[in-house]
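pinned: reference chain
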Amino acid sequence: MDAMGEINLNDILSQCFWDYDYSIKDIEDIILSGTKTEKLYLFKKIIINHKFFFKAVKIFSENELKEMLAKIPNGFFKYEFQNIRLISLRNYYLGEENAPKRLRWLLQ
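pinned: its C-alpha cells
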C-alpha cells in the first residue's frame, strides 16, 4: 500500500510550508529520494505544524520513522505541545513509555 497516496500532500504543503516556496513536487522528491537530512527536516516540520501529525508522518516508512525519532531527543522542541507530539510518536513507534511532566502522577 502506498502511504503517500493516503496522505494529502497539499495539507502538508499548506500547514507546514506556508511561508516557504515549496511545491508538491518538492515534498514528493524529499519523501521518495531526499537525503536523511532533508527527510528529518520534513519530519520535524510535520511534528511542529501539521494538525493531524500522527497521520501525516506515515508518508515515511516505519523504519524511517524509527530512525528519525531516535535522532530527536525528548525536549528538543521549543514548545510543550510540540514535545508532547514527539513523545507520543516515540511511545508509539519506539515502544517508550514517556509522559509529559504535566500529565505524570506525583507520588508523595
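why pinned: The CA atoms of residues 6 and 68 lie 21 Å apart. The chain has a mean pLDDT of 89.
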